[in-house]
Amino acid sequence: MAAALRLHPDRFFSPDPAVRRVARDLYEAVADLPLVCPHGHVPPALLAEDAPFPEPTALLITPDHYIFRMLYSQGISMEAMGIPTRDGAAVEADPRAVWQRFADHYHLFLGTPTRAWLDQTFAEVFDVDVKLDADTAMEVYDAIDEKLAEPNFRPRALFDRFNIDVLTTTDGAADSLEHHAAIRDSDWGGRVIPCFRPDAVFRIASPEWAGEMARLGEAAGEEVTDYAGFVRVLEDRRAFFKSMGATSTDHAVVDPLTHRLDDPEADRLLQRALRGEATAADQAAFEAHMLMEMARMSTEDGLVMQLHPGSFRDHNERVFRRFGRDMGGDIPVATEYTRNLRALLNAYGTDPRLTLVAFTLDESTYSRELAPLAGHYPAMRLGPAWWFFDSIEGMRRYRQLTTETAGLYNTAGFNDDTRAFLSIPARHDLSRRVDANYLAELVAEHRLDEEDAHGLIGALAVGLARDTYNLGDGVPETLLDVSADGEAR
Predict the structure, then answer these.
(1) Is 259 helix (H, G, I), strand (E, B) or coil?
(2) In the CATH hierarchy, which fold is given to the domain comprising 52-153?
(3) β-bridge partners, 331
């Protein structure tokens, strides 16, 4: 007989009854609040087209590198999981065979956040009541496939069912935002906004840079031939994104180095790149300068600046050559912030017009560098535990290592940072439970009284993200509005 899939109502709470009672009360106070999603990677076409989802394997397994990177680590080839190759070589084409292989190895995910998100998605989105394993694979597949055929499982219907207040996508500097325009022009009221991410046009030594610059020039209606024109085009594109509802920018670098060049030197580097001669050192200097420029532009147009350093992209060369980018081979590296961010923070860190949200993949920097920086510079906020650490233990460590120095109000709330649309409710639920338990521990230790904890949990769940990312406007009146101090407005 198949084992039942049950989600314990006190999951992720402390076994200590004194802590668990308070955690449960705090969680229940925010469990049904709307989901504020200020940073993520759900493709806007999903909600613009509102087409039925594909079958379960194409929806849940093939696009999710969290899943196939774990299986790959255990010797299961990506070809066997149906991951398309760059050269079109044959891979497993039967989605049921891929699903069965996934179910055969589902035990590999025990104790991981992926397992928590998937089990909650199975149970609460699809009403699956049996645990996925080798024996139940086809039963679960068919149950999900049957649900996906129903009209109330279209993307927009699920967006409304998930109680998503606002969803931010991530879009390249040259993106036309046509899908955002289509959503705006539709009769659907869901709030989906873009985020300006210009990384591709800053990577002047990349083989793809010339193509990205051509796209940027086409989108802007002018060819970029010098640095002054490059800056002008970026400012115009930011203004376009803002006109389409954007409230933020996003920047991914290996090292968060910031350093201002003079304009002639910046132009010299750009000219080298236009001739195809830029080196890795040229790119590092140009990126460091452009982060300064992005901060300057944010003080003028008000877009929140997000910084995501510390990932060695596509570490596995074989996987990159065969399958392309973003295939589970991105690995964290040690990252330094105190010296690297000094130029930017000295120039703009006390400017009330700038909000800089800094993330990390290097947890050792939480208490040593990031919390002290955010606890001093008015412009800086700490991004939540992210990517490899957006898990129960990662979230716990984040709060434990940052609160004493930065406090809670110098953090940016929660974001799900996901392409997996169906996992958004589970990710937010996990965050709310972990934060409720953290505050409950402070109450049990008499470091926080329960009334203050109830104010804080609303801020952590919703208010800080709204306030950090300027997302307070445009919220339907039927939704509870929670400010950064946790109070209903």
Answers:
(1) coil
(2) uronate isomerase, domain 2, chain A (1.10.2020)
(3) 312
